[in-house]
Amino acid sequence: MKFGPVALPEAAGAILAHSVKAGDRKLRKGITLTPDHVAQLRQAGLTEVTVARLEPGDCHEDEAATMLATALAPDPAQANLRVTEAFTGRVNLLADGPGVAVLDPEALQRFNRINPMITVATVPQFQQMGAGGMVATIKVISYAVPRSDVQTAMQQAQGAVRLVRPQYRTAGLVVTDIAGGPPNEKGIAAIRGRVEALGMELFDVQLVPHRMDALAAAVQALRGELVMILTGSATSDENDVAPASIRAAGGVVDRFGMPVDPGNLLFLGALKDRPVIGLPGCARSPALNGADWVLSRVACGIETTGADIAAMGVGGLLKEIPTRPQPRAAGGK
User: Fold this and answer.
1) CB within 8 A of 68, min separation 6: which ones?
2) Which terminal Cβ of the chain has fewer Cβ within 10 Å, N or C?
3) Orientation angle between helical segments 212-221 and 241-248, nearest 10 degrees
4) What sign has the CA pseudo-torsion 242, 243, 249, 253?
């Protein structure tokens, strides 16, 4: 691509590199100059403009961005994505419903190393998305890039961006109650909001005393494809009331504790064929916490192991919440 100032008689057919005022009209950068544009610029007293002119083997920014988007999401419907029309070298990949972004980071890094003018930016891996949310944006920075670089980038990142939709439609919640414990209404509302943001229904809510026998019976009887437990007293050990109740009901606890703050006191398990999430007390607040990361993955059927939860520690220091009874700065757990 040739770039630089040219005399007006040579500007027709080139791409205007910088926006220019021509009388009462503004000619915006990126347009292909016509003879009429050149006449307007001449009447405005200009003798030259800065332009970009494609050379053999070049690919226009919009065509390049469209080609690159086609590679990143070859089948948008299958990837649960919507692809926008190219504009000024940009194409966006949007979520077509609630879900979790699943990326191929190594492929995307290879893509971004081909040519500095060829870029893709995405949300973080496993980011929860709402309908219409931008999962990725492809931007060709210059007005044109070598077609060979476009083709190489396409080969490096085939199908590297997708959205996984929730696999469950319903969830159930058991809340244990203790005398003098926190109020339940706001906590239930916050959890309902999380569930509904994933396109699911909070199908059943049970309030029971904070005892192992009552909780074990409740989780067995609870309706919903996914089981959540919110205890009136914080779970502080893998043999505490909530984890012990899952085992007593015939289930298993795979992981207690997570390196995300707030959210440390989460546990993850299963009861027969249903996943079980023991929610930390901070789930009573709508603010982001570790439970959001686990709930969204589990709801979307993404395998979430103890190793996965351990890896959440990098980036797991989340914003302090005002309702925290013992702020980190004061030495709280």
Assistant:
1) 91, 111, 118, 120, 138, 140, 150, 153, 154
2) C
3) 50
4) positive
Architecture of domain 58-164: Alpha-Beta Complex (3.90)
Please report the sign of the dihedral spanned by the C-alpha atoms of residue 197, residue 198, residue 200, residue 204. negative
- Mean pLDDT for 282-300 is 97
pLDDT of residue 249: 98
Residues 135 and 163: their CA atoms lie apart, in Å, by 8
Based on its alpha-carbon atoms, the radius of gyration of the chain, rounded to whole angstroms, reads 27
Count CA atoms within 13 Å of residue 64 on its CB side: 30
Residue 157: CA count within 13 A, CB half-sphere: 32
Residue written as token pair 């995300």: 260
- Asked if 285 and 189 touch (Cβ cutoff 8 Å), the reply is no
CA distance 204 to 142: 54
Question: CA–CA separation, 297 vs 280, rounded Å?
Answer: 16
Instruction: Judge whether 168 and 196 are in contact, CB under 8 Å.
Output: no
pLDDT confidence tier of residue 333, bands split at 50, 70 and 90 = very low
State pLDDT tens for residues 112-150.
999 999 999 999 999 999 999 999 999 999 999 999 999
What is the domain class of 2-53 according to CATH? Answer: alpha beta
pLDDT at 183: 78
Largest separation between any pair of C-alpha atoms in the chain: 88
pTM metric for this prediction:
0.91
Record the tokens describing residue 213, joined without a space.
Answer: 């026998």
Selected from 3.40.50.1820, 3.40.50.970, 3.40.980.10, 1.20.1250.20, the CATH number assigned to the domain covering 170-318 reads 3.40.980.10
Of 168, 177, 178, the closest CA to residue 203 belongs to: 168
Which residues, 6+ apart, have CB-to-CB distance to 221 below 8 Å? 206
Containing 206, the helix (H) or strand (E) segment is strand 201-209
